[in-house]
Design a protein that fits this description.
19% of the residues lie in helices and 42% in strands. By secondary structure, it is an alpha+beta fold.
Length: 130
């Protein structure tokens, strides 16, 4: 609920999921939820919320993406097109980005980022763990 409560329009939560928290000085500064797993296409969606950008270190990102890429071929993230910080992070991870007008709300587009395992492994943020 920590993540869902911080994402507008996410009051119903995520259903079945795997969640992770990032702590700094014994306080949660970010939550990451992997959900909407589709085993037929080997795709999973991820949602994140944070109170500080300090959570997104190379080590944390590598640990988090190790989880879905142990069984998925693609991770998908959706965010408001106005969320420039998240969009910049996904581009740094190597993701493709698609803007869909009015998907988030009337007059508010949504950015959909898709990241495949090969894209991630080519990213400047990947540090080569197996």
């Amino acid at each position: 609920m920590w993540v869902a409560s911080r994402i507008e329009g996410c009051a119903r939560g995520f259903g079945e999921n795997q969640s992770f928290a990032v702590n700094l000085n014994d306080r949660i500064i970010a939550g990451i939820v992997f959900h909407n797993w589709n085993p037929e296409s080997e795709v999973i969606e991820v949602s994140c919320a944070a109170t500080s950008p300090k959570w997104a270190t190379r080590d944390v990102l590598n640990k988090l993406l190790e989880y879905p890429f142990s069984f998925c071929r693609m991770v998908i993230a959706r965010m408001s097109e106005e969320n420039t910080r998240s969009r910049r992070l996904w581009r740094a991870l190597g993701a493709n980005e698609y803007i869909i007008p009015d998907l988030r709300a009337d007059g508010v587009g949504e950015a959909v980022a898709t990241l495949t395992n090969p894209q991630w492994k080519k990213s400047r943020l990947y540090h080569g763990q197996t």
